[in-house]
């Protein structure tokens, strides 16, 4: 259980610092895209991190993600400058699109198209007898 809480603390630290890197230090690097870190999953040994991104205002999100992948070493260097004194290992980073919002919209769309008849009251049936 201790490793789980350690991973959670480390992932929240990475999420906070990576968010600041994307918003402040690399704000103009990716055009007008507004990049949000939605989640960070860290390996048990803290050497690898999966970073989930939400790309808003991006005309071509897949191209923006490719650009982020290309600049991964630069992002990792910025991260090392921020947390290098606090941690022993700066994790390898892997970036992925967070598709949670798209999935939620798809489910919402499916639910809105369902034709569900209104429920009949049981009290009205009992009063008829």
Percent strand: 15-25%
**Strand arrangement in the largest pleated sheet:** 1-2-3
* Count of alpha and pi helical runs: 5
Taking Cα atoms only, what radius of gyration do you get, to the nearest Å? 22 Å
Low-confidence stretches: none
Distance between the termini: 60 Å
Q: What is the helix/strand order?
A: HEEHHEHH
The secondary structure category is alpha+beta
Strands, total number: 3
Mean pLDDT: 83
Shape: extended
Question: How much helical structure, as a percent, in the residues?
Answer: 40-55%
Q: What can be said about the biggest beta sheet?
A: 3 strands, mixed
What does this structure look like?
- The protein is of the alpha+beta class and 129 residues long.
- It has a three-stranded mixed β-sheet.
- Helix 1 packs across helix 3.
- It is extended.
- A hairpin with a 5-residue loop joins strand 1 and strand 2.
- The model has no long low-confidence stretch (mean pLDDT 83).
- 51% of the residues lie in helices and 19% in strands.
